[in-house]
Amino acid sequence: MKTIDDLGDLRGRRVLVRSDLNVPLDGTKITDDGRVRASVPTIRRLADAGAKVLVMAHLGRPKGTPDPGLSLKPVAERLAELLGSPVLFANDTVDEEAQHIASALREGEVAVLENVRFNPAETSKDDAERGAFADQLAALADVFVSDGFGVVHRKQASVYDIADRLPAAVGGLVQAEIEVLERLTSSPERPYVVVLGGSKVSDKLGVIDSLIETADSLLIGGGMVFTFLAAQGHEVGSSLLEEDQLDVVRGYIEQAAQKGVDLVLPTDIVVAPEFAADSPPTTVAADAMPADQMGLDIGPDSAARFADVIRSAHTVFWNGPMGVFEMDAFAAGTKAVAQALTELSAREDGGLSVVGGGDSAAAVRQLGFADDQLGHISTGGGASLEYLEGKTLPGLAILEDA
User: Fold this and answer.
1) 382 annotated active-site
2) Could you read off the pLDDT of 112-143 as tens digits, one per residue?
3) Is 311 a catalytic residue?
4) Against a cut of 0.85, is the pTM above it?
């Protein structure tokens, strides 16, 4: 797979960069700019090399039609602040304004194109339709750089088809993501601990199948834990529960026992009468949950145990919060995991902590931890999981063939 170093002299060349700028917005205010900051090094490197940089990305799910609430303009403004230099903005993706800006860009200048998903062809299942849109994108540039790791598992025009139409390479962000995930899949330094949370077991089936073969310990929290507890015959009240996954989860429990994987489930749960920030929390034993309560976080004893296991590891992969971290009363479990990861990263022997994107990355920042306190915060939750599952990621596979 080619890198930017393999593209030769980029001075004066138009470089189309696929970044991941899919940030959470409150109106026009970015509430977490982590993905924008992660995109800056590659964009800056290209601009410093004298390239004419065109950045394309998506925001949200506009369903193929323009949506002012999902415009990339606020993101372009934040990118300009981070770069410390002006960033032009095209109010369309491949039409008149984008074409004008692409042709008028000067060496070292950066422009952001409007949300690629405003065009229905971007996410089309029809190869010809996607290809026609990729042709329009390719006409804007001389070179393509894939630097949006959060979308490399998607077969989309700006990720997959474009790489077949221009000289292509991976950017620094994607390169770094692959290197870290390779360490998790091919040669993790042991003990290797995996921490999984989030809402649903069904979202994590593939990664559990894979990691139960390689991890030494598997720690389960979040909403998905209640399917595990129910599979053991425990009452889970009104908590999240996927009844159709109970047999699958029983299989995981048996498989972990057979393979000697330490499957760690919470021993206590923070419950409340309803899903609300002001709902009064109570801590109960995991095997004695009241039928009229719902679990919203792992309990303090479980959080302490999870933290101990993490601190004793050499490699940790974490994906999914332990509870409803957005509400203060139910954030302690997630905060304990994040704190333990920072302690692992600070160790003299260089333990590796990897936060697998998505809600986990948002939780780390919202709870007051800095990115540099952890070994690696992935920008792509879904892509990270599919990579660890061993799936073929279209956006990487097409670059391997380039």
Assistant:
1) yes
2) 999 999 999 999 999 999 999 999 999 999 99
3) no
4) yes
